[in-house]
Design brief:
This protein has 401 residues and is mainly beta. It is built from 2 helices and 34 strands. Helices cover 4% and strands 46% of the residues. The protein has a 17-stranded mixed β-sheet that branches.
């Protein structure tokens, strides 16, 4: 059954001279209640703004453009919003209180319909949201946005939506699909960060504390190209220190982590592997990164303009690092085997471009202990290797010098 509500059940009952219970019983049969059927709100052929807010007095307010009404939250089991034609916007605003029902678990389904439709959560910001999970569907325009407050929850089920913008606070989790995803974290418009999963619906956020990306199944590519917009200040992985971003791949699936240095900032990027496919990546302007299930990493830095640097932290055990040099200044490929006498795990194949070539420490190997080895491979050109007389622990490499 579907309760087709345009005016709101309470107002419609008043117009008919009935109680809400009598109206529901007359339409759906004796013994029925509003909580047993979806509460449906309709737009029209115009560009509608449909707003759902909490009044703070146990009621949920619905507005279709300028026409508003309220319903007691205890009557609501689930809500369906039918956008129909036009460029519609669904606004769910927790600013006056967390929007949910009497059971503390409200499901809002938005069938946007044709048009350039969008979803906005807390457009002017709001507190009280502890965690948000964005899961785009493999079908473009569809997805799920789950939000948790203090003992309450609201799930948004979205269909045919072109964009999502979230101004609520708390932590953020983004899930990939079961396929091979290209997941990007970049700067969006208006001071927002933007998460894109392939060509699916983009998700913009303005006030999150930390970010976790779960690639899921498939050979995923997670690219971190955000210069710190907005600034993340939380910790998504207490086991790996205070890291603002966590990236989790699917071990053995061929997942790749790509990170960019920030333009105009001197990034000192440090890769610290801790186990097979896991470790941390520090020194990025956007915040520290903890990763797991990653087989390869790409680091894109700015050696000419910013003087970026890159380093690898070894383990307390016996490490083997292999450096394959390149004819492109500041570029190299790293591989190796770490802690060989104990747990023995591989260093993710790491391709570095743009490292600093004008100062000592193009590639820095720190925390050297145990019986460590460094193997350096030259290029197919005329290579010259030598120790810097002013810095005996620095190996210099020149091509056709």
């Amino acid at each position: 059954m579907t309760a087709r509500v345009t005016l709101g059940t309470r107002r419609l009952a008043v117009l008919l001279g009935l109680s809400v219970a009598a109206l529901i019983a007359a339409v759906f049969g004796a013994g029925s209640s509003l909580g047993e059927v979806p509460y449906t709100v309709f737009g029209d052929a115009a560009a509608n703004t449909i707003t759902i807010t909490d009044t703070g007095f146990g009621d949920v307010e619905f507005c279709v453009d300028a026409f508003c009404w309220t319903e007691n939250s205890s009557f609501l089991d689930s809500v369906i919003v039918e956008g129909y034609d036009g460029n519609d916007a669904l606004v769910v605003d927790h600013a006056g209180g967390f929007v949910t029902n009497g059971a503390g678990a409200l499901v809002i389904s938005f069938n946007a319909g044709p048009g350039d439709d969008r979803v906005e959560v807390c457009p002017t910001g709001c507190a009280g949201v502890q965690a948000t999970t964005w899961t785009p569907s493999a079908v473009a325009g569809d997805g799920g946005l789950a939000q948790q407050g203090f003992g309450v929850a609201t799930d948004l089920v979205l269909a045919s939506v072109s964009a999502v913008r979230d101004g609520s606070d708390g932590s953020l989790v983004v899930n990939g699909t079961t396929g091979d995803d290209a997941i990007t974290y970049a700067a969006g418009g208006g001071g927002a960060g933007r998460i894109g999963v392939g060509g699916l619906t983009p998700y913009d956020f303005t006030a999150k504390s930390d970010l976790t990306v779960n690639g899921g199944q498939g050979a995923d590519r997670v690219e971190l190209a955000n210069p710190g917009t907005p600034a993340l200040f939380g910790d998504c992985s207490s086991a790996d220190g205070a890291q603002a971003v966590c990236v989790h791949g699917d071990a053995g699936a061929g997942d790749r982590l790509v990170a960019h240095g920030a333009s105009g900032a001197a990034d000192a990027v440090v890769l610290a592997p801790t186990s097979d496919g896991a470790g941390t990546l520090g020194g990025l302007t956007a915040g520290g990164v903890a990763y797991s299930g990653i087989e390869a990493t790409d680091l894109s830095l700015q050696y000419g303009a910013d003087g970026d640097r890159f380093g690898v932290v070894g383990t307390p055990g016996d490490d083997l690092l292999e450096l394959r040099t390149s004819t492109v200044p500041g570029s190299a490929t790293l591989a190796g085997a770490l802690d060989r006498a104990a747990t023995a795990f591989p260093l993710p194949v790491t391709v570095v471009t743009g490292a600093n070539t004008t100062a000592a420490g193009v590639l820095e190997f720190t925390a050297v202990s145990g019986a460590d080895e460094l193997v350096v491979h030259g290029t197919a050109r005329n290579d010259a290797f030598g120790l810097d007389p002013d810095a005996p622990d620095t190996l210099r490499h020149e091509v056709d010098g």
